[in-house]
């Protein structure tokens, strides 16, 4: 089993506050992980460090053995690390087709081509159409994203990340705010993600965490509290105390 | 699952033909676009007394198109776009003054100078908010104006650049006092650069610019190097503005310090507000309205015409162009349906 993503002694300080405290963790290729922890545990900071939004105070981030600590977010995406956002980050005036087509075209390296019409490369069109079909967005592919129902927008959020063809995918609360009746669509998509993609799910919903994750990492006060197989973490009394004990696992 | 993924991508997805049609449809020429250009060329024979004014409109339209490329497509605000217009004007004027009177050569020289300045200053705009960008662009234009004022041995300073003599366009068409050659020349340059801009905004690069404008965070998250794209479009926009300045210098055969004026930068912004941003025709429509209003109002009330332009601007912003546009399309939709079927 090879390591897809790992951090080594990762520290992030904001003034006197230690938001990430010496986190060393590795994510194995193709496994499903969940990152949990009470509010303020440092989940968002860790995600920002992994994706390059923030630079660590010390320590390093490695993607498939390559040190990516100094890379900016877009370079990390090109190296195979994609993400979704907890709050939709889409292009409101663009259609799902344009959005996914853009991501595919960028990944295939056509993004700087200014002499060709967008939509004239069949590799881009075919792949974008296939992704939209897989996500059930074909019917809505031609309407502006901003008029889509929230659940569809959440699906598009994941579809764009998949269009980057990542080897590691960070899902930040993918089902957050989705109405109950549209929820199963998101869960089906998440559980059907390609097996060779390493997935790290940041999630509050314990049902989703335990139905999805093979391994769980628990953050408390910025530090890695424990990391282990899902059932071991669920059974650990200390975890139940600091996190699940708050009534999360219903 | 990998195999499954590969399978869908190699076989053509059923939705692919529809997707292709949708993507390409946005770049299709509409009937009114043809109408705009036919009208612009028809004006050569239909409005022979207005050719000098029309030439000014064509140049202002190109200048506004240049601003639209960064404002409408990349979301970069500028209050100093006259920096590139002015540099292009002086470059073209000086090239002609020092014996290279061929207009197209002057255009190339002006575009090159403005592009170099645009490229160099684009890096100042990558960081910071809209307010920073407004101030930085404004500052650059002011600095250039002062530089042109001081180096009067080259630019003529406050007296303006004299002795700009132009050779005939393509060696055949002399500039005349009615502005006929001037207008045809400016209009052709506008058309060529417009077609290029239209190509660029509908390309994958153009799509990525829209993405950067709409949501830079997500644009980075699909692997777009936002800074490189912004530098590229800013450089292109600067070259366009330089060409507009060159056209102005060549067709009036004179350059003065006011090419760098703050008023010029503000006017071109106003033109885009009048015509609308982000669809390329805003510059042309806005320049037409602006110049027509200026021409009419200054003949009616020579001193106070800016009052009325200001009033129109305030109404436009308060009422909103969308509502005016909706009213307009209620009137024209039956007609456009008829034209399509």
TrEMBL record, chain A:
> What keywords were assigned to this record?
ATP-binding, Nucleotide-binding, Transport
Q: Which CDD domains match?
A: ABC_Mj1267_LivG_branched
Gene3D superfamilies per the UniProt record, alphabetical? P-loop containing nucleotide triphosphate hydrolases
Please give one Pfam family short name: BCA_ABC_TP_C
* A cellular component term, taken from the record's GO annotations: plasma membrane
For this UniProt entry, the molecular function terms from Gene Ontology, in alphabetical order, are: ATP binding; ATP hydrolysis activity
Task: List all membrane-crossing ranges.
Answer: none
SUPFAM superfamilies hit by this protein: P-loop containing nucleoside triphosphate hydrolases
Which part of the chain is the ABC transporter domain?
5-246
UniProt name for this protein: Branched-chain amino acid ABC transporter ATP-binding protein
Which source organism?
A: Alsobacter soli
UniProtKB/TrEMBL annotation, chain B:
Q: Where in the cell is it found?
A: Cell membrane
> What superkingdom heads the lineage?
Bacteria
What broad class describes the main subcellular location of this protein? membrane
Cell cycle listed as a keyword: no
Q: What membrane topology is annotated for this entry?
A: Multi-pass membrane protein
Sorted alphabetically, the keyword list is: Cell membrane, Membrane, Transmembrane, Transmembrane helix
Entry GO MF terms: branched-chain amino acid transmembrane transporter activity
Membrane-crossing residues?
29-47, 59-84, 104-126, 182-201, 221-247, 268-290, 302-320
Q: Name one GO cellular component term.
A: plasma membrane
**Name listed for the protein in its UniProt record:** Branched-chain amino acid ABC transporter permease
To which species is this protein native?
Answer: Alsobacter soli
């Amino acid at each position: 089993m090879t390591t897809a993503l790992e951090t080594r002694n990762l520290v992030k300080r904001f003034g006197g506050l230690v938001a990430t405290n010496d986190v060393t963790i590795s994510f194995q290729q193709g496994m499903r992980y969940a990152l949990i922890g009470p509010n303020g545990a440092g989940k968002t900071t860790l995600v920002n460090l992994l994706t390059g939004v923030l630079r660590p105070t010390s320590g390093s981030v490695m993607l498939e053995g390559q040190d990516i600590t100094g890379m900016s977010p877009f370079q990390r995406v090109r190296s195979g690390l994609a993400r979704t956002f907890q709050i939709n980050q889409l292009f409101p005036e663009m259609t799902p087709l344009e959005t996914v087509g853009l991501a595919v075209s960028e990944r295939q390296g056509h993004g700087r081509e200014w002499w060709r019409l967008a939509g004239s490369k069949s590799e881009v069109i075919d792949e974008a159409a296939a992704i939209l079909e897989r996500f059930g967005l074909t019917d809505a592919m031609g309407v502006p994203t901003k008029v889509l129902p929230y659940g569809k927008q959440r699906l598009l959020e994941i579809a764009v990340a998949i269009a980057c063809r990542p080897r590691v995918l960070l899902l930040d609360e993918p089902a957050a705010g989705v109405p109950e009746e549209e929820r199963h669509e998101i869960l089906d998509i998440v559980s059907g993600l390609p097996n060779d993609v390493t997935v790290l799910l940041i999630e509050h919903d314990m049902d989703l965490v335990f139905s999805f994750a093979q391994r769980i990492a628990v953050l408390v006060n910025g530090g890695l509290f424990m990391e282990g197989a899902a059932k071991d973490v669920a059974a650990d009394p200390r975890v139940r105390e600091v996190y699940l004990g708050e009534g999360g696992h219903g | 699952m990998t195999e499954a993924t590969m399978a869908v991508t190699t076989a053509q997805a059923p939705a692919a033909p529809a997707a292709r049609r949708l993507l390409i449809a946005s770049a299709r020429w509409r009937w009114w676009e043809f109408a705009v250009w036919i009208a612009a060329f028809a004006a050569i024979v239909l409005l022979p007394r207005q050719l000098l004014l029309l030439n000014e409109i064509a140049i202002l339209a190109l200048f506004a198109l240049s601003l639209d490329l960064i404002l409408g497509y990349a979301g970069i605000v500028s209050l100093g776009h006259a920096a590139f217009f002015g540099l292009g004007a002086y470059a073209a004027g000086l090239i002609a003054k020092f014996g290279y009177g061929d207009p197209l050569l002057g255009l190339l020289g002006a575009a090159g100078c403005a592009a170099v300045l645009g490229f160099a200053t684009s890096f100042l705009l990558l960081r910071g908010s809209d307010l920073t960008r407004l101030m930085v662009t404004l500052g650059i234009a002011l600095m250039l104006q002062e530089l042109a004022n001081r180096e009067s041995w080259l630019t003529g300073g406050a007296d303006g650049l004299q002795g700009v003599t132009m050779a005939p366009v393509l060696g055949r068409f002399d500039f005349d006092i009615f502005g006929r050659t001037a207008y045809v020349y400016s209009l052709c340059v506008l058309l060529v650069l417009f077609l290029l801009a239209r190509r660029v905004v509908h390309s994958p690069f153009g799509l990525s610019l829209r993405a950067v404008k709409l949501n830079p965070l997500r644009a980075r998250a699909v692997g777009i190097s936002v800074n490189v794209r912004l530098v590229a479009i800013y450089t292109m926009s600067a070259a366009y503005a330089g060409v507009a300045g060159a056209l102005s210098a060549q067709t009036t055969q004179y350059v003065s310090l006011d090419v760098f004026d703050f008023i010029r930068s503000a006017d071109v912004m106003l033109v885009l507000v009048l015509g609308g941003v982000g669809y390329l025709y805003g510059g042309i429509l806005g320049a037409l309205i602006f110049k027509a209003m200026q021409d009419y109002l200054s003949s009616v009330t020579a001193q106070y015409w800016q009052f009325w332009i200001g009033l129109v601007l305030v109404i436009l912003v308060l009422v909103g162009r969308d509502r005016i546009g909706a009213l307009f399309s209620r009137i024209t939709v039956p007609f456009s349906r008829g034209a399509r079927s």
